[in-house]
Automatic annotation (TrEMBL):
<dbReference type="Pfam" id="PF00201">
    <property type="entry name" value="UDPGT"/>
</dbReference>
<keyword id="KW-1133">Transmembrane helix</keyword>
<dbReference type="GO" id="GO:0008194">
    <property type="term" value="F:UDP-glycosyltransferase activity"/>
</dbReference>
<keyword id="KW-0808">Transferase</keyword>
<dbReference type="InterPro" id="IPR050271">
    <property type="entry name" value="UDP-glycosyltransferase"/>
</dbReference>
<keyword id="KW-0328">Glycosyltransferase</keyword>
<protein>
    <recommendedName>
        <fullName>UDP-glucuronosyltransferase 1-1</fullName>
    </recommendedName>
</protein>
<dbReference type="InterPro" id="IPR002213">
    <property type="entry name" value="UDP_glucos_trans"/>
</dbReference>
<dbReference type="GO" id="GO:0016020">
    <property type="term" value="C:membrane"/>
</dbReference>
<comment type="similarity">
    <text>Belongs to the UDP-glycosyltransferase family.</text>
</comment>
<keyword id="KW-0472">Membrane</keyword>
<keyword id="KW-0812">Transmembrane</keyword>
Length: 161
């Protein structure tokens, strides 16, 4: 820790799925930049204070769009309530670690709310539109390599039976 404190870093670039980088950033009192696709249970939206109404924003893995029927909206609400319970249980070890290390009581939302910039590897072209805060920047397409064009092949018959 002394080496890190003496290094005078400007920021921490981290993936908040495992919040150890964020705990370190808070300890060193430096800004953090999150690089992620998304977090379970919409922790990213909660921490960045984005509107996340279950009647509009579909939960992950539901295959719902932002145009849901009444039944899908009810399903979305029930899923949001259950994932909140499950994720709080799953991230409890990190909350205990952070509380012990930072010597104050913190939750996952508290930890992640100190993120300066959220670089999200997604794009509205592939996702549904949702309300966002100004410190969330979409960098979708960075994982897409430029593909070579397919060669023209004339070995196919004119008619396919």
């Amino acid at each position: 820790m002394q080496d890190l404190e003496g290094s005078k870093f400007d920021a921490v670039l981290t993936d908040p799925v495992v919040p150890c980088g964020q705990i370190l950033a808070l300890h060193l009192s430096i800004p953090s930049v999150f690089f992620l696709r998304g977090l379970p249970c919409s922790f990213d939206l909660q921490a960045a204070q984005c509107p996340d109404p279950p009647s509009y924003v579909p939960r992950t893995f539901t295959d719902n769009s932002d145009h849901m029927t009444f039944i899908q909206r009810v399903e979305n609400l029930v899923l949001k309530a259950s994932e909140s319970f499950l994720c709080n249980f799953a991230y409890l070890p990190f909350e205990l670690l952070a509380s012990d290390f930072l010597q104050r009581q913190v939750t996952m939302t508290d930890l992640l709310s100190h993120g300066s910039i959220w670089l999200k590897r997604m794009d509205f072209v592939f996702e549904y539109p949702m309300p966002l805060m100004p410190n969330i920047v979409f960098i979708g397409g960075i994982n897409c390599g430029k593909k070579k064009t397919l060669p023209q092949v004339s070995d196919f018959p004119d008619k396919i039976f």
